[in-house]
Amino acid sequence: MAALIEDVLAEAERSGPGAPRSIHVEKPLELQLDLGNLTALDTNPLKAASFRQDPEQFLRSLARDNTQLLLNAVWQLPSERLEQTIVAKLPQPSTRIPREKALPKPRPPTRWEEFAKLKGIQKRKKSNLVWDKEKKEWRRRWGYKRANDQTKEWVIEVPESADPNEDQFTKRRTDKKERVAKNELNRLRNIARAQKNKVPGVGLAPTEQPSKAELSKAIRVAKTSTASVGKFQDKLPKEKEQRNTGKKRQFQPLVGDFSAERQKQLELLNIMYSKKPKLDLTRAVNRQLREDEQEQAAKRRKMQPRGRKGGKGHNRGRGQDRKSAMKQRGNRK
């Protein structure tokens, strides 16, 4: 027999320690609830006398009452039972919470996607199995043992427009290599277009000799376009180590464990609200020593006599002494 949540809470309050508390809380102003984010905003004025008397107990009581009102609103929402657990269906949040990271940018369309959009071509999914007329069975469209595999033919009909002395098997292998090279070139052009680099033309020889920087850039783009991002690519005989290839910025994952993100935000708040600023002892000692040296130099300049302040004044004093000595000698004679 299912019991009401109010009866369960009332029984827990009667059996628990301390004075019983009611689940019904009355306040002059109703809380502003955002059940989508499970938040509540209390706009009621604080009781200054109760807060001054016992701040910790007042805050505990206020938090308990607001939490009780929030839980009461949650239990009024439609709910369902999933694996012996009652789950409430939360509405859409009404408060916009700012994101820590920017929204991911959409991938730029390729040249074929732009052409298909312009012409109105819609992508249709093909089945993986195709009927093989020779083997009389369903086979894969691509890959090993595919249907209608032309490479397994032991004889090829020579077209009327072709050279009768030309090897059709060699021509077929050459055409396949050209198609693979063309697809690889188109793939590299799409990568260059996505990185907003200059896209070279097709079938046109370069009119100028490429510089060393352009060649190194082309090698770097070709290596990093592989599945391993160039990790397992062989080096050229005289190739130098690439510089500035590391990550410029490291971002936290958008989904997963939020403990690291919460710890980072708490450290940032502690730095912002800390009353005691951080003291650099080395810088403070050097500054104090510099000030002491300046004071001692100023005292020495004050105690130094005026005649010996500069070279000119000192020489002038010596010249006057020589003149007086010569006068005394003349008087003696």
How does this structure look, described?
This protein is mostly helical and 333 residues long. The protein is 44% helix and 6% strand. 0% of the residues are buried. Residues 310-314 have low confidence and may be disordered.
Q: Indicate the overall shape.
A: flat
Give the spatial strand order of the biggest sheet.
1-2
Q: Structural class given helices, strands, pairing? A: mainly alpha
- Helix/strand order, N-terminal first: HEEHHEEHEEHHHHH
* Overall average residue pLDDT: 78
State the separation between the terminal residues, measured CA to CA: 143 Å
The number of distinct β-strands equals: 6
Helix content: 40-55%
Structure, briefly:
The protein is mainly alpha-helical and 333 residues long.
List keywords for this structure.
333 residues, mainly alpha, two-stranded antiparallel ribbon
Break the fold down into its secondary structure elements and pairings:
Layout: H1 5-15, E1 32-34, E2 39-41, H2 48-53, H3 55-75, E3 79-81, E4 86-88, H4 111-119, E5 129-132, E6 137-140, H5 168-194, H6 212-224, H7 259-273, H8 281-303, H9 311-332
